[in-house]
Amino acid sequence: MKRAWVLLFVASLATTALGQTCQGRLIQHAMGETCVPKVAQRVVVLDTGELDSALALGVKPVGAVTAPGQPFQGYLLSLTEGIQSVGTIQQPNLEKILALKPDLILSNKLRHGQIYPQLSRIAPTVMAETVGVVWKENLLLVGEALGRSTQAKVLLAQYQRRVTQLRNRLGGRGHLPSVSMVRFVPGQIRLYCKANFIGTILADIGLPRPKSQDSDKFAEFISQERIADMDADYIFYAAYGDPNQTELNAVLNHPLWRRLSAVQRGRAIRVEDDHWYLGIGPLAASQVLDDLERFLLRTP
């Protein structure tokens, strides 16, 4: 009964009337045009990329979602204290969002386009089109919505400088090593290709991918019989959630895994899922670059 009342209340909230003068700033986004506050004070974010981007821009949301069964990303632990959970990415809790009295909601059409009308009646809502591969464009949109476009551009410039420096340092060693990306998700083994967050970072550096991942799509979904397709100069692998609920241990103990050249050379490295896959923002990208510098530039 309470939930039904809240939904009815949300549906009754007045939105900005067509033709009414915007007293803040007009933002163009995936769902149209929205009048946002000149300086938002109470921001709610509904995806991990928006959380990362807002924090990178110096704005601490009052509320945020998490990945199912997960806390806020570990690499953001020191920055997320006091942020209220408002459900999961798949199921934002409208009651909790409403109770926080936000003046701006940030999300994306891919995740929450269907509930945009309800969200926009709670507060001005700005949505990117999608996630992952467009994380840089999404950062710029978040920056615009928060009135921090200059800061967003500075973050991207800093990222690009680091990418260039790493590419030059690796190139000075004679060749750029190939990199394989493997993620274990309950019920799935994924070989990440180019159309995702980590794929953009590897492409920016110029790191080649093995044939199994050298395509402009999100991922290949494979079985253990295709472990050989994981091989490259380096293998970086991670597990989403509880690794015991995935095929991680089965693969690591498989004879085919032990035959991989990267494994035999000590170049199969487990990395943190939180920032390599879940983060999808500038803070996560910076952490990934830290890892790549440490692993790829260490003395052979």
TrEMBL record:
Signal peptide: 1-19
Predominant cellular place of this UniProt entry's protein: other
Tagged with keyword Iron-sulfur: no
Keywords assigned by UniProt, alphabetized: Signal, Transport
GO CC entries: outer membrane-bounded periplasmic space
Coiled-coil segments: none
Domain Fe/B12 periplasmic-binding: 42-300
Subcellular location: Cell envelope
GO biological process, one term: iron coordination entity transport
Keyword hit for Transport: yes
PROSITE patterns: FE_B12_PBP (PS50983)
Annotated family: Belongs to the bacterial solute-binding protein 8 family.
Protein name: Periplasmic binding protein
Species per Swiss-Prot/TrEMBL record: Meiothermus ruber (strain ATCC 35948 / DSM 1279 / VKM B-1258 / 21) (Thermus ruber)
